[in-house]
Amino acid sequence: MLRVEGNDNAIIFYEREDIVKATANFDKANIIGEGAQGTVYKATLYVDGIATTVAVKRCKEIDENRKTEFLQELVILCRVSHPNIVKLLGCCLQLEAPVLVYEFARNGTLQHLLHGRPRRHPAVSLATRLRIAVESSRALAHLHNPPHQILHGDVKPANILLGDGWVVKVSDFGCSTIDDSTQVVPKGTMGYLDPEFLYDFQLTKLNDVYSFGVLLIELLTGKKPLVKERKNLTAMLHVSLGNGTLDELLDTDIVGEGSMGVIHQAVELASRCIAIPGETRPTMQQVAEELWRLSEQVPERAPPPEDLEGRGFMDTVTTLSYGYTTGESETTGFYGLESNAALSIEYAR
C-alpha cells in the first residue's frame, strides 16, 4: 500500500490483494450499483488501521483518451476537501482496469430519494429538501472559489450522494475541468445542460449554476427535467410563472406544509439560476447564502426519511454514482498509469 499526500487529501494506492479481499473477489452479492460504465461494490478496507466500509468502483477498461480523465479525477479530488464533497480514499491500478475507493454513502442518491422511493414511504419535507439544496450549493461554491476553480460540469440529482443523516456528498467529476477549458464535445446530461454551453462548449461556473437551478426546480416540483410530450421542466416553470399556475407545478408533498412564501422565493431563485443570458445569473456563493436564509425559516421539525441501511438497502438502491466513470475500451497496463497518477497528485500540491 502506497500513500501519496495531496494538498488536502492523502490518496492510498491499494494492492490488488487488498481490493480482491475487501470485495470477496468482486462477489455479486456486494454490488450496490451497476451500469454500462462500471460496477460499485460495498466493501470493507482498512483506512489508517481501522476497518472502514467503503464504496469500491470497478471501472470498465480504459484507453489512452480515458487515461487523462482518470488522472484529472485524482488531481481534482486531491485538491478538494469539503464535508459535502465525496472523499476519494484511494485507488488500485493493479487490475485490468482502474479501481477507485470512495467513502461510503449509505443512503443512495438524491435521484433515488426524489424518484425511486415507494409512495408509501414518508414524504420528504421542505426543510429536508432545502437543506439538501444548501449543502449541494455550498459544495459547488467551494469548488468555484479560489484556489480551486474547479467546474463540475454534470450537476444533477444522480450525482448527489446522501450519507449518514442524509448529508450531501457531491460526486462524479468525470465531466469536470480545472479552470475554464474549451471542450471539443459536449459533456454532461441533457435536461441539466446549460443551452449556452452548447453554443461553444466553453464550460464556465455559470453552466454549473444553470444545472443547479434545474436541480432546485426538481427538488421543489418532484418532476424530472425531461418530461413527456416533448416538454421540459424549465419551460413548464416559465409558463406556470407567466400564467399564475405555479402551485399546480409544485410537489404536493410540500405544498401543504404552509410555507408557500419560502417555496415561491426558492422558485424565484431557481428561475434566476437558469436565466438567459448567463451573465445575469447569481454565483454559487450567492445561491448558497440565499438558500441558507430560506432554510432558516423552515426548521426541520421531524427527522429525515429513515436511513436505508439495514432495511433492504441492496434492494432499494439500484444505482450509485461514485466519481469517475469510463466507457468501454481496450485494457491498459497499470504500471505507467500508476506512475503518472502519483506524479499528477504531486502536481496538485
Automatic annotation (TrEMBL):
Organism lineage: Eukaryota, Viridiplantae, Streptophyta, Embryophyta, Tracheophyta
Molecular-function GO terms, alphabetical: ATP binding; protein serine/threonine kinase activity
GO CC field: plasma membrane
Domain Protein kinase residues, every copy: 26-293
SMART domains, sorted: S_TKc (SM00220)
Top-rank taxon: Eukaryota
GO biological process: cell surface receptor signaling pathway
Natural source organism: Panicum virgatum
Name used for this protein in its record: Protein kinase domain-containing protein
PROSITE patterns, A to Z: PROTEIN_KINASE_DOM, PROTEIN_KINASE_ST
Keywords: ATP-binding, Nucleotide-binding
